[in-house]
Amino acid sequence: MTPERPAGAAAHPKSSRPNRKGRTPGGTEPKRQTSPADGGVYAALDLGTNSCRMLIARPNGAQFEVIDSFSRAVELGTGLESTGRLGHGPMARTVQALRICRRKLDDHSVRRMRLVATEACRRARNSSEFIRKVQRETGLRLEIIPAEEEARLAVISCAPLVAAETEQLLVIDIGGGSTELVWLDLSGVAPEERRRSILDVKLGLRSVEMPPVKPGAPRVVDWISVPLGVATLREQFTDVEDDAARFALMSWHFEEQLQDFSPYENPAPREGFQIIGTSGTVTTVAASYLGLKRYDRNKVDGLRMTSTQIDKVIRDYLQLGPEGRRTDPRIGRERHGLIMSGAAILQALMRVWPTDVMSVADRGLREGLLYAQMTRDGVLAGL
Q1: What's the CA gap between 235 and 282, in Å, rounded?
Q2: pTM > 0.90
Q3: Based on CB atoms within 10 Å of each CB, which residue in 144, 214, 293, 330 is the most buried?
């Protein structure tokens, strides 16, 4: 399948559960409010191919404070590669998880929210049926967002990690069903404005030439959404029994999908170039490098890893083998089956753009959704 592309900080979650008084009935949708009345509580839900994740937060200066969260591996995309449809079991698991999300939204009286679904629902022939089922059984109305919006939100989420000296920025978001890459030229933006300017980045379909860029704004060199993520890439190579051979095939297959991405042939110079990686794969590699048996976001988010360090972690994964990875506490029970397909993607990207350092972002679509909502409402101070 060819990639889809254009033509031509949150703090740790705190325990905070208000009383259940005032909860709305299960079948009705929480009321949405779009005007910034009091800078109150916001929510962002990301339903992907593998996971259902949600953050509930309130603005706090230039960042936001997470007051509740939810994450569950629902594996919504199981079987999608072969059937083109969402299966009954995966849909039932997902609805069950969304009921929990609904309860949390009610508990915190959330009125400002954005609830989105990504690659699995973009591709499934029965996604409209599934969206109706979710609304009927939970009262939640999911929005299936296009690939360019998913990529834009990933970039926004990483804004706080952009270095002042960065002139060329590559943001990598490895998802369950797709991988988004966005290349930005920040050389025309004043160093002190680079973080803030990224919040206003717009992606969209383009013709032969990119639209003119306002002075002092980031320029989108190119972006691409490859329909291969940790779950979909793994499904394509389940017939290869040898662990190392399967890993190599996955990595080279992913790289083949990048050849229509313009920076593939014209990589940026090493000076002033920054790669930011955001995904469970990237944070798991970082946690493994640090030897964390218990995940610590404060140690992972913003960590800078060299390509040599990343390669060593991936070689260690291969030496462990499937059974060793299954029991390795640094990887975790929910990640061990997906880590090698994610590592194959990561290795391909580091091979294509050989760079000394990658910045690790424990943030992604949910954080991008929160930043976008809060920025729109004017409740965040400058980054």
Answers
A1: 20
A2: no
A3: 330
